[in-house]
């Protein structure tokens, strides 16, 4: 069995922001349940032995962990490439330097919009955007490569060009523009977030044009919205193929939303070594490869391209994680995905200071 290339380490669910598009679960893991430093170090050692090359340190906000520098140093000592996925809050210039000294390879900083008032409203935290700009400056001063990432939804997609300008101004070499995925908390806010078909397609065209025009100045990774695509994405690069996710409490998942799938037997790093989990955990074998697939996936020429799409999306929309992803135009249930999108074909609820969208903000894990 091929080794996973990457490990997403959700170090904590604690987070200073309250984003309505958060894809973390509805019920967050409390600080008291988090793995301790020694256990995370063991997990990273097991990951390196298994063949993992890249560790993505995420959350919540990974800087909420006071042992972040120690964990980065341990990964670097193992030869693992480390990517810090951060809101920026909780980092200081001294802490960034300490992380760089410990061997951190890359920083991925989220922003919510280019305009401070809008960005802070989406993040649910006054002053957050100004702090992120400051952190971006520290990252580039430290000499670490910077990627900016932004989640796109109906409140910010019409202004995506300003976000691209801002990423360039912040010194990012790469910008990830990802349309919101309606997992976890984001589903609670779907009506406030989901753009109309016309809005989404206009944004897709604009991002693709910017990607071409700005090639050489900034690399734009564009994650297009499932709701209006012809075929689904190979979620996680295929179930149990490339990536594993470890939750703050140590449960090991094939994707970050896998805990929503009823009956999936999920193993923990507190009970099993990582190589055993990767090879034998029932959750990883549930949708690995193509043998589990129903028609039309089973005989489809794209079954080794997208692996039947997203199991969690099939569950959320059809109530059946084994079904063909309804984002696929070949799915017999594609009309249910279309109906879901059509429910928002109303005039754009573009956020303004006078008419903020009716978000349900996240409350943080304790
Ligand atoms: Fe992918 Fe299945 Fe659709 Fe074929 S039928 S394109 S394998 S989701
Ligand atoms: Fe779980 Fe796509 S998010 S398979």
UniProtKB/TrEMBL annotation:
Reactions catalysed according to its record: [PQQ precursor protein] + S-adenosyl-L-methionine = E-Y cross-linked-[PQQ precursor protein] + 5'-deoxyadenosine + L-methionine + H(+)
This enzyme's EC code(s): 1.21.98.4
Keywords: 4Fe-4S, Iron, Iron-sulfur, Metal-binding, Oxidoreductase, PQQ biosynthesis, S-adenosyl-L-methionine
Pathway the protein contributes to: Cofactor biosynthesis; pyrroloquinoline quinone biosynthesis
PROSITE patterns, alphabetized: RADICAL_SAM (PS51918)
Cofactor(s) it depends on: [4Fe-4S] cluster
Superkingdom classification of source: Bacteria
Region annotated Disordered, chain positions: 325-366
UniProt-listed InterPro entries: 4Fe4S-binding_SPASM_dom, Aldolase_TIM, PQQ_synth_PqqE_bac, PqqE-like, Radical_SAM_PqqE_MftC-like, rSAM, rSAM_sf
Annotated [4Fe-4S] cluster binding sites: 15, 19, 22
Radical SAM core domain boundaries: 1-217
Cofactor note: Binds 1 [4Fe-4S] cluster. The cluster is coordinated with 3 cysteines and an exchangeable S-adenosyl-L-methionine.
Assembly mode: Interacts with PqqD. The interaction is necessary for activity of PqqE.
Entries under NCBIfam families matching the protein: PQQ_syn_pqqE (TIGR02109), rSAM_more_4Fe4S (TIGR04085)
HAMAP family: PqqE
Function text: Catalyzes the cross-linking of a glutamate residue and a tyrosine residue in the PqqA protein as part of the biosynthesis of pyrroloquinoline quinone (PQQ).
Family: Belongs to the radical SAM superfamily. PqqE family.
Name of the protein in its database record: PqqA peptide cyclase
Organism this protein belongs to: Tistrella arctica
